Amino acid sequence: MECVTPSRERQIAIGPFKEETFHHGLCDRIGCLRHPHRSPTDRRVADLLGGGAIEFREEQLEYSFRRALMRDYQSFDICPEQALQYAALSFGLKLAPSDKSRLLEQYRTLPPYEDTVAGVQALRRSSHTLFAFSNGVEATVRHLLESAGVLPLLDGVVSVDDLRTFKPNPTVYDYLTTRSQQTKTRTWVVSANPFDVLGAKAAGLRAAWVKRRDDAVFDPWGVAPDLVIATLGELADTLEPLNPKNPASG
Fold first, then answer.
1. Are 194 and 151 found together in one domain?
2. Would you say 133 and 207 are in contact if contact means Cβ atoms under 8 Å apart?
3. Residue 47: is its pLDDT beyond 60?
4. How much is the pTM?
């Protein structure tokens, strides 16, 4: 998920959870706000699959990329279910229906990163307009954000499910600016997922990469994020000088 805005005249898209991605995107499922690999779900997957949790996560994203390219849409709710099945098969295991249901339900209530709530509160105090921008189905995204204590801090949720495609299709970033009623140059996507940052930049939006790990590598495509931050807590301070309503910015 992803979406925030510096000042009421600018929007910022943030991925609040590791999706897509705060990934489903406030970043996919989201990426920058959620903590997928530390949740009970992923620990359980790791226990059952002997290290399959990361493959589970990567397959979700790959499935969304494939479906967008093939124009064979299934909602993002389907991707975790199919990715979990793939991971189990890859490790030669058969999950009981009860285990599968429990794992998927836990995945829908991933905990936020430690800096998520405080970071979003700081952005709101700086008068930024905040949205969750996600590949996920809106009802699922809202449930996730509500369980993390983030939903009441946001101005809205923008789900690309409305378009029946996935990030980084350029149309989803156009849809974000339409829904937020902002120009592209005043809209920021904030994500821990490099593909989302690259997608936003290619579509003409501004983008910040949340580098959650020291060893994280940004794709060497010759395109750089407008900002690189380690936590959401850094974001409000970094954007403040860019805020046109800030007297210090002239």
1. yes
2. no
3. no
4. 0.78
